[in-house]
Amino acid sequence: MMRLTLDPLREQFFPRGLPDGSRHYWPGTLLDQLSTGTCVGHGFYSAIQGAPVMQKPPLSPYDFYRRFVMEDVWSDNNHEATAPDDQLQSGTSVLAGAKVCKDMGLLSAYLWGESAEDVRAWHLAGFGINVLGTLWTDDMSTPDSEGFASYTGRIMGGHCYVTTGWNDRVKHNGKRVRAVRCQNSWGKGWGNGGRFWLEMDDLEKLIADQGEACAPTEIKLAKRGVHGSN
To answer: Are 57 and 28 in contact (CB under 8 A)?
Structure first.
């Protein structure tokens, strides 16, 4: 499948290269997926709710997930389209989430970042949140005292989370680094109030290691007659 990437957009907005900067977006209500495997449903819920186009999602994170499992390429999770919330465990793809949200009229388009620099450009140009689907390690599960997760340690599987901003001069281990701010869906008790930083080098490795960085473009919905609402 051919994917539209961010490279042409980056060149359009920053033909001489990206200047240093910082830009952050309201990420929506902090969510908790509890012990379920519905991180992609929670990720797109946050993306629809958060800035720059802030609106109430028409479905719960769990109902988003139920639609996504019917769209992805895996058939062994189809039964979860009708399962109770606490039995949603198999997981689904970021691509399925983007396709369903576009079909529902929530997105006009979605692009794919192929590098950390693409994600940086999306944020600094003012387009808002990315939905990331990457590998996840045990060290990422325990951010350090400054709120940074490290892409080291044993791989635990895949996970979806959203980016909420970018800072080219955030302090970590006594030096200034480029880093992306992320929000997880494991409640306020995890990480730095449910959020964490990833240094640019770690983000680059995560994207290169089969990671997906989905950059959605939202459509402002009318108050009535929302597509896909129950």
So the answer is: no
- Tell me the CA distances in angstroms from 48 to 90, 139, 162, one per residue in order: 23, 29, 11
- Measured CA to CA, the distance from residue 54 to residue 103 in angstroms comes to 19
Residue owning tokens 């990480």? 191
Least Cα distance to 38 among 141, 158, 188, 163 occurs for 158
Measured CA to CA in angstroms, residue 19 lies from 13, 93, 100, 125, 126 at distances of 11, 33, 35, 11, 14
Q: Which residues pair with 192 in a beta bridge?
A: 195
Contacts of residue 79, Cβ cutoff 8 Å, sequence gap at least 6: none
Q: What DSSP assignment string belongs to 3-61?
A: --BSHHHHHHH-TT-PPP-EEE----S--B-TTSS-HHHHHHHHHHHSSSS----SS-H
pLDDT of residue 230: 29
- Cα 49 to its chain centre, rounded Å, is 12
21-218, CATH topology level: Cathepsin B; Chain A (3.90.70)
Please answer whether residues 218 and 98 qualify as being in contact, where contact means their C-beta atoms are separated by less than 8 angstroms: no
pLDDT digits (tens, 9 = 90+) for 112-166: 989 998 899 889 888 889 999 999 999 999 999 999 999 999 999 999 999 999 9
Spatial separation of the C-alpha atoms in residues 135 and 59, rounded to whole Å: 26
Altogether, the residues listed in the chain come to a count of: 230
Beta carbons of 142 and 186 less than 8 angstroms apart: no
